[in-house]
Amino acid sequence: MKDMSKPLAQYSAPINLPTNSPIRAAVTASADYPFTHVEATVKLDQNESSEDFPEELKALALQRMTQQAWNRYPDLHADSLRDAIAAYEKWPADGIVVTTGSNVLIALLTQLSGIGRRVVTVAPNFALYALGARLLDVDLSEVALRPDFSLDVAALVAVIRQRAGGVVYLPQPHAPTGTLAAQQDLSEILRASSDWLTVIDEAYYQFSAADSTTLARQFPNTVLLRTFSKAWGLAGLRLGYALTTPDIARQLQKLVPPFAVSTMQTAVAQVALENPGYVIERVKRVICERERIVKALDTHPTWRAHPSAANFILIRTPDAAQAYAQLLRHGVLVRRQDSLPGLAGCIRVTIGSKDENDAFLRAAWAT
Ligand SMILES: Cc1ncc(COP(=O)(O)O)c(C=O)c1O
C-alpha cells in the first residue's frame, strides 16, 4: 500500500527531463492523475453509487448483447444510443456527442477550443480540467473560489475578457466542494463569454435541485457534460455525453475516434435509459443519507461538513492526514483533498449505503 499520510502531490516535478526526449515536454512535466487504489471494507473515495446496476437490468442487457453481431463494428457515432439519450433528455440527437466517459470529453473539448488559446477554470476544482490543459500545453487560468466556495464572478469575467476565446470549465454542482453555483452567477459568466466555449460539467446534477439545460438553450456556446458513472450506478460502463448545439456537436464529433462506443456499452446504456425509475429512488436515498451525515457531523467536536448538492461531502478537519488514517484504521476509505488550494485539512467522503455511512460516522468519532 502506498504511504497516504502525505498530501497527494497535484503536479509532480519533472524528473531529469532528457533534452532529446521523444515525448513532448508538457507531458513529461505533467503529473499523473491523482489517484491511488487502496483496499478497504467501506469504499467512500470515488463518488460512485454504492448500489450496483439492478440485477434484472443486467440480465436484460446481457440478453441484448447476445443478440448482437460481435463481429461487426458498432455505429460510427453511437447513433442509436444518441437517439435514446435524445428521447430521455428531450434534447436534439444532433446536439449530442457520446464517448467512453465524460473524462474523455474534457480532453476533447480542450482540443476543440483550447489549444493555442486558453482554458479558464476555478480553484480548487476537479483535477482533469487543469491537467488536460497542461498536457496540451494550453495557457491556463485558475480563478480562486471565494472562501465560502461560491464563484468569484467578477474575477472570472475579468479573466475571460482579457483575451478572446478558449474554454471555460465549471462543474455544477462543484467538485470537490459540493457547492451549487447560483444560476445568476452562471448566466453572468455565460453572457461575458460569447466567444468562449463554456462547459458546465453536470456529473452530479441529479443530486442537486438544479440543472443547466435552460442556460444551455439560452447561450448557444454552452456544452453540458453528463455521465452514467454516478447516479446511474454505471461507473464500470465508462460512458458520458455532451449536450450542446448541432453546430458544436458536429465539430466535437470530428475529434471522437470512429466507432468509439462499443455494442456492449450501447446495450447496457439503452437498457438503463428505458428503465430510469431506479435512479430516482436511489437519488432520494442518497440525498436523505447526505442530510443525515451532515446533521450528525454538526455535533462532531472538530470536523465541519460543508453543505453539499452532490453525492459526497467535503469535511474540514484539523488534520487531513490524521483524519484519513483514523478512518482507514476502521476500514473506511475516503479521499484527501488537502493538497488543493483553500482546502487545508479537507477530506471528501462519498455517500454510501446506510450501513457504510454508519461505519463512517462511528469511525469519525473513534480514535
Ligand atoms: C466533476 C466530474 N466530472 C467528470 C467526472 C468523470 O466522469 P466519467 O466517469 O464520466 O469520466 C468526474 C468523476 O469523478 C467528476 O467528479
Could you explain the architecture of this structure?
The chain is of the alpha/beta class and 367 residues long. It contains 13 helices and 13 strands. It has 2 domains: 25-53 and 278-365, Aspartate Aminotransferase, domain 1; 68-274, Aspartate Aminotransferase, domain 2 (3-Layer(aba) Sandwich). Helices cover 38% and strands 15% of the residues. It has a 7-stranded mixed beta sheet, with helices on both faces. The two termini are 22 Å apart.
Largest sheet: 7 strands, mixed
Q: Segments where pLDDT lies below 50 for 5+ residues? A: 1-14
Total DSSP helices: 13
- Overall mean confidence score, pLDDT: 94
Q: Could you please say which CATH topology of the largest domain applies here?
A: Aspartate Aminotransferase, domain 2
Strand content: 5-15%
Number of strands: 13
Output the CATH homologous superfamily of the largest domain: Type I PLP-dependent aspartate aminotransferase-like (Major domain)
Main-sheet strand order equals 2-8-7-6-5-3-4
Helical fraction equals 25-40%
CATH class of the largest domain: Alpha Beta
Ligand kinds = pyridoxal-5'-phosphate
